[in-house]
Write a structure and sequence with these properties.
By secondary structure, the protein is of the alpha/beta class. Helix content is 39%, strand content 12%.
């Protein structure tokens, strides 16, 4: 494996600026890595070497000419395949969009191109981002580079595994109930869900519009901060886009100071029900924060008990509405049944053939929750619970500057282990869902290997809305403490990565 691709994004940026390496050289190194390992890992649904190398060559030309460039210019990146791209298919992991090439770029994609970041390809995901394991992709699952028989998380398992397997230094994900943070947890990477509205959703194929948020995937906190600085900002195309800047996340990540900070441990998201190895790593992280001068307090969020139930009514309801556009008429797959092909019969045949089982399950559930006679009992009640969760967060943040919990109850499970038990799959998101319901930012960083499974574990950090900089300050400080103990980066513990490529 080339040592070049093992470097952090921040290190590669300095090498590019000093012209010790070229963007073409760096991009080609990652494409070569993909050719060597992605047949096993299956992080990508589409790889675009020609477009990536052309973008890299243009950055090299401009740098040689002395033109002013963005700080991350020339650094390659992977993009989740639910963001529209004009030069590559956008499938959202579904057969109903197989081969579809959009007519416009998502705002985030435009920002990456404007920054001069070559896009290596589009990463795999659960169909329309519905899932926690990437096993619901219509094009086959991605695999965890730590153990190829295990899941890399979901829905953004492609984005987490592409970074963990050194096929890209950075990736873009989307998080509706933990789809950036949970994959980061199980692959030993860093994933951030920014404050709702901090990053434009224009061009993101919507799952649940009030919950979805685009964010960075990286191998360390500073790299994630650098990427959030690129993609964040107001967008007039997105009515939910925040009008103000949240400041520099990279500056916050460089402070490495938690002295005097109040860290709240969420009572409902630790202890019973969490894997012993995960809990052990979490408690060690708390001890590190305490020794660094942070004050550890317990906070009570009683409404979190109902978060999963509320989420799995709100999300399917919004999804059933958002997915109504896939009707065989305007774009995507069209199946013509035998007999008289009325629009109703064509639409039914297309959706039957084009949607997978998890998508159908959630559409049925969501449509029922919104139906006459059920709206108040189900969807309306779920929205009331959402308000209670937001109030619990408000009360918790009155006592603490940030909140922490294990990112998930258990380390990566085996492929196929939970496919026949949707409820068990949904419970993976017990710790991550509340942040989406409240619209607050959250981050998962690795905090060691769980000794009972020898797989990555992680800690989740939560901050108040618009408090993203706090995540990066605390996350980077804790990451630094861990690496001082380990003597190396978390990602360098991964056994599978050394033997491939």
């Amino acid at each position: 494996m080339s040592e070049l691709i093992r470097k952090n994004a921040s290190e590669l940026v300095e090498l590019l600026k000093s012209r010790e390496i070229s963007s073409v050289e760096l991009t080609q190194a990652h494409l070569d890595r993909t050719a060597a390992v992605d047949g096993d890992v299956h992080s990508y649904l589409h790889v675009g070497p020609e477009a990536a190398l052309a973008a890299a060559a243009e950055v090299d030309r401009r740098r040689a000419a002395g033109e002013a460039l963005h700080a991350l210019a020339g650094l390659p990146i992977a993009v989740k395949d639910n963001l529209t791209t004009t030069d590559a298919p956008t499938t959202s992991g579904s057969k109903i969009l197989e081969g579809w090439v959009p007519q416009y770029d998502a705002t985030v994609v435009k920002k990456l191109r404007a920054a001069g970041m070559p896009i290596l390809g589009k990463t795999n995901l659960d169909e329309f981002a519905m899932g926690s394991s990437t096993e619901f992709s219509a094009f086959g699952p991605s695999r965890n580079p730590w153990d190829l028989e295990r899941i890399p998380g979901g829905s953004g398992g492609g984005s987490s595994s592409v970074v963990a397997s050194f096929q890209a230094p950075l990736a873009i994900g989307s998080d509706t109930g933990g789809s950036i943070r949970y994959p980061a947890f199980v692959t030993g990477t860093v994933g951030t869900k920014p404050t709702y509205g901090a990053v434009s959703r224009y061009g993101l194929i919507a799952l649940a519009s009030s919950l979805d948020q685009i964010g960075p995937v990286a191998r360390n906190v500073l790299d994630a901060a650098l990427l959030q600085d690129v993609i964040a900002g107001h967008d007039p195309h997105d009515s939910t886009s925040l009008p103000e800047s949240l400041g520099s996340m990279a500056d916050a990540a460089k402070k490495l100071d938690v002295k005097g900070l109040r860290v709240g441990v969420i009572k409902q998201l630790s202890g019973e029900g969490f894997q012993p190895g995960v809990s052990a790593r979490f408690n060690e992280s708390l001890e590190l924060l305490k020794n660094a001068g942070a004050e550890i307090v317990e906070v009570d969020c009683p409404s979190f008990e109902y978060a999963i139930a509320a989420y799995y009514l709100i999300l399917p309801a919004e999804a059933s509405s958002n997915l109504a556009k896939f009707d065989s008429v305007r774009f995507g797959l069209r199946v013509t049944p035998e007999g008289t092909p009325t629009i109703e019969r064509v639409m039914a045949a297309t959706r039957e053939a084009g949607f997978g089982p998890e998508v159908k399950r959630r559409i049925i559930l969501g449509t029922y929750a919104l139906s006459s006679g059920s709206y108040d009992a189900f969807y309306g009640s779920a929205q009331k619970v959402r308000t209670l969760i937001q109030r619990d967060f408000d009360a918790a943040f009155a006592k603490a500057d940030v909140l922490v919990s294990p990112t998930a109850p258990n380390t990566a499970f085996k492929l196929g282990e939970k496919l026949d038990d949707p409820l068990a799959m949904y419970l993976n998101d017990i710790a991550t869902i509340p942040a989406n319901l409240a619209g607050i930012p959250g981050m998962s960083i690795p905090n060691g290997v769980a000794e009972d499974t020898n797989l990555p574990s992680g800690i989740q950090i939560l901050a108040p809305a618009r408090g993203d900089a706090r995540l990066y300050q605390v996350g980077a400080a804790l990451e630094h403490m861990h690496e001082e103990i380990w003597g190396k980066r978390m990602i360098d513990f991964a056994p599978e990565l050394e033997v491939r490529g």
